[in-house]
Each structure stands twice: as C-alpha cells, then as structure tokens.
Write a structure and sequence with these properties.
With 356 residues, this protein is of the alpha+beta class. It has 10 helices and 19 strands. The protein has a 6-stranded mixed β-sheet with strand order 4-3-2-1-5-6, sandwiched between helices. Strands 7-10-11 form a 3-stranded antiparallel β-sheet. A 3-stranded antiparallel β-sheet has the order 8-9-12, with helices on one face. The N and C termini lie far apart (50 Å).
C-alpha cells in the first residue's frame, strides 16, 4: 500500500478528506519535490493540483494520484470537494500558519475545516518508521558525507579558518553527489567548540584546539547527520579525559537503543556514563538525539523530557556532548536505525580521536 492509500485508509469515513500543503509532506506522499502545489486525499480518489512550473514533471513522475494543472485553486478544490461529498477537511496544523488557515477556511466554505493536530499526528506516525527505500537514500546520504569528511582530512591543516574548513567540507559533499546540505555546517574550534551550535568564524585552527564538525548531506530528499571532534596537534590530559567520557557516552547510548525502550531511558544511559567519568554530565545541556529523515529534526526525540517510545525502523541520532564554557567542547554523533533487539549504526567513520 502506498503512502496516499495508507493515509486514505485512516480517514474516518467517505465524507472526510485531507489537504496536504507542506513541501515535505508533498514529497512524502507523491515522491516529487516542489515548492508549490496541494494534495487532496479522499477515500475514493486523490489529486495533486500543481502549477505550470512543475506540471509536466509531475505528470511523468507521480503515479499514486491524479495530477491536475492549477488554474483556479479555489474553484478546483471546491469542485473536487463537491464531487466526493467531502464535508470535513483536515489540514496540516503543524505546518499551516493561522493566516493560511483562515484563508482556506474562507475559500473552502463548502465543508468544515479541521485545524486540529489529527492530520499532522497521522503523518508523523507514518513518517517515523522508515521504509527500505527511505533507508537506502539515507545510507547513501551518509556515505556521501563520510567520503567528503575523508577528503577533508587529507587537506585540512593548522592555520585554516573555521570558515575555510566548513566551505571545503560543503564543497566535497556536493562533489561526492549530495543534492544539498542537511543544514549549515558547523566548524567550531578552540573556545568556539564550547558552543553546541557555533557558527564558523575567521578564527584559524591552532595547536591545542578541539575542532567540532557537525554536518550532513541530502540525497533524494533524505538527510544524514554526523558529528566528529578532532584535535589540532596534541591534546592535554584533561582534553583526552573529556573526549573519552563523550566517546563512551556515545557507545553506551547506542547500546541502549532498541525497540520498546523510551527516548528518556536512552538519554539517561548516556548521561549516566558522562556522570561516571567525573561528573561531565553537568556540561551536557541538550538532548541525546532526534529523528532524521525528510527533515533534519523530526520525531522521535531522545532527551530527559522525551515521551517517545522507540520502534523498529525509526532512525535517530545519538550525540552526547560536553561543553566547558570558555575552554572547549566535544560532541560525537552517529545515526542509527532501531531494530527489534538493538540498532544498526549507519555511521562508519571512526570515533577514535583524530589528530591534525
């Protein structure tokens, strides 16, 4: 059963429809990436209404619903609602602004517009379990990122700036086959590595610096995400101790991932390891991980407040860190797929401390 049919099967009855308006959901249901268009899903039939910029390609690629050239969106949607006797239309509340909701409410007066979280929750529940095809794309994205990282290691030298390192890594990802970058690459050295989401600066790499690289590639709309912390020159004993604590927190967190374990429990395991290595957990201020897929951050979550229960087929990151303000920080991140009895690590790059 394709994704459109799966969602249609969840509609309450024949008078209930779903309106898909977000770019990410349009890609999920039609397998077609575009910045415009809407999908109407009913129990009887489904439609992609899209403008002339994308119409020809959509006709070629979209097979799970009828593709209609957009002329007058209001009239076309109303005609389809009347045709299928849709009296209740659910929308994606997680993505739709209040102004857009009011606009659709005014245009689609024929039926009740459902602004609850019902549709967004259903789509999230579908997307959280990755298909074989989705995993294949994510693994490809990860291999691209890893190949780029290996090329970077061959070129990176002391004296290069954080901006230069990030730019080179971005170039290598695109040159290795990425369709896009998963997010703005983080390259943070020295004192800047103490900021989990630091922005690359003109600071040069210097002996004794930690260098944290957080990056990912997009392939066929699916993201990868990984972090490695390197050292320029030789680390001090204190730096080695911090790295070792985060390294084992990453390993223990991965060991805790399995189906039917909560995200809160997995987070607590890694946090406990940091605590056991001299109380480094007090320097770990963010959650342990998050889901990855068509978006770089999606359900589920691994954190102290997580309500997520892990299920087979979910893809999550495991990224413990410790950040000592004014000095340096370390983060190590892998991306894993949950299995019945554990998980499969999709990240192959070594986690041993690399010296530049």
């Amino acid at each position: 059963m394709n994704n459109i049919a799966r969602l249609a099967d969840n509609l309450t009855d024949i008078t209930h429809g779903a309106l898909i308006t977000s770019d990410v959901s349009r890609r999920y249901f039609c397998g077609f990436k575009s910045s415009a268009g809407v999908i109407l899903i009913t129990k009887e039939a489904s439609y992609l209404i899209i403008d002339s910029r994308y119409f020809d390609k959509a006709k070629q690629r979209v097979t799970d619903c009828e593709v209609i050239l957009q002329e007058d969106m209001r009239r076309q949607l109303l005609d389809l609602l009347v045709k299928h006797n849709i009296t209740k239309l659910s929308v994606e509340s997680a993505y739709m602004t209040l102004s857009d909701f009011e606009g659709y409410k005014d245009k689609l007066y024929y039926c009740e517009l459902d602004g609850s979280s019902w549709l967004s929750d259903k789509i999230s529940a579908m997307r959280v379990i990755k298909s074989t095809a989705e995993l294949k794309s994510m693994i490809k994205a990860q291999r691209i990122a890893e190949a780029a990282f290996e090329r970077l290691l061959e070129r990176m030298r002391k004296g290069m700036t954080e901006k230069q390192v990030a730019a080179l890594l971005n170039y290598y990802m695109m040159d290795c086959g990425a369709d896009d970058l998963s997010f703005e690459t983080i390259a943070a050295s020295g004192v800047n590595s103490a900021s989990p989401h630091a922005v690359p600066t003109d600071k040069p790499l210097e002996n004794g610096d930690f260098l944290t690289l957080d990056f990912g590639a997009v392939y066929d709309s699916y993201h990868s995400d990984m972090t490695r912390t390197l050292v320029i020159g030789e680390p001090t004993p204190e730096m080695e101790a911090l790295y070792e604590a985060v390294y084992y927190a990453n390993l223990d967190g991965i060991k805790a991932v399995r189906a039917d374990v909560s995200g809160k429990v997995v987070d607590s395991v890694a946090r406990g390891t940091l605590n056991g290595f001299g109380g480094y957990d007090k320097y770990f201020g963010h959650g342990l991980g998050h889901g990855v897929g068509l978006e770089i951050h999606e359900a589920p979550t691994l954190s102290r407040t997580s309500s997520s229960m892990l299920r087979e087929g979910m893809v999550v990151t495991v990224e413990p860190g410790a950040y000592i303000s004014g000095r340096y920080g370390v983060r190590i991140e892998d991306m894993v797929v949950v299995t019945e009895n554990g998980c499969e690590n999709l990240t192959l790059t070594t986690k041993k401390l690399i010296r530049i």
